[in-house]
Write a structure and sequence with these properties.
This protein has helices at 2-27, 29-33, 39-50, 63-66, 80-86, and strands spanning 68-75, 96-106, 111-122, 126-137, 144-158, 170-173, 182-189, 193-198, 203-208. By secondary structure, it is α+β, with helices and mostly antiparallel strands. It is globular and about 50 Å long.
């Protein structure tokens, strides 16, 4: 019976992931990362979370699955950047989000080094890369972490359509007393899909690169 349940869960996961990725692709990256009514997608994610094959992703046995390069494909309430853009009338739609990613690397005992980045096309300014670097740290709970960022950087990768030029990176350290911690829970993880939830319930769907 247990084997049949596992096979049933695998089939259900495959069907749910297929539907999830199809719905996200139909939205397009712009709409998928700006705040919107994503109720159907959120319901699919909740069903996936209920049959999560790796409930403790921070366990040493599961870190190889968690670590690596991930592309953000959906954010239920937008991201820090897109929420700010959406609050500016008629401005958010002029920003072209080309890619948003997260890279997780083992950083020591109960710590992971995290880099969050995005490539944006800005009106009149060309293409820019934004990146925030920080640390995930956790205690006995092997699914929830405290996230803090210690530096931000930005670099023009194609300024005014001038692809052959090399532009310096501007790195901005974050003073220690300004490093606010945020709570982050990995609520679903497999070889292809990862779901994270912030403290306010905003869910983020990542796909392995």
């Amino acid at each position: 019976m247990e084997h049949q349940d596992m096979v049933g869960d695998d089939a259900t996961r495959f069907a749910l992931k297929t539907e999830l990725l199809q719905r996200v692709e139909a939205l397009g990256l712009q709409q998928a990362l700006f705040p919107s009514d994503g109720e159907p997608i959120d319901e699919i994610v909740q069903q996936l979370e209920s049959i999560n094959p790796i409930p403790h992703p921070l366990h040493p046995n599961h870190l190889p699955t968690l670590l690596g390069n991930w592309q953000l494909v959906y954010a239920s309430k937008g991201t820090v950047v897109t929420r700010q853009l959406a609050s500016i009338p008629d401005f958010g739609g002029t920003i072209n989000i080309k890619r948003v990613w997260q890279r997780l690397v083992a950083g020591g005992t109960r710590k992971i080094s995290a880099s969050n980045g995005a490539f944006l096309d800005l009106p009149l300014l060309g293409e820019w890369r934004l990146q925030a670097d920080g640390v995930w740290a956790w205690g006995a709970d092997k699914k929830t972490v405290k996230v803090s960022f210690d530096s931000f950087s930005m670099q023009a990768t194609k300024l005014f359509s001038m692809e052959s030029w090399s532009f310096p990176e501007l790195k901005i350290p974050v003073l220690e007393f300004l490093r606010n911690e945020a709570e982050w829970t990995t609520s679903y993880l497999d070889e292809e899909i990862r779901v994270g939830r912030g403290a306010t319930g905003n869910l983020f769907v990542f796909r392995r690169e």
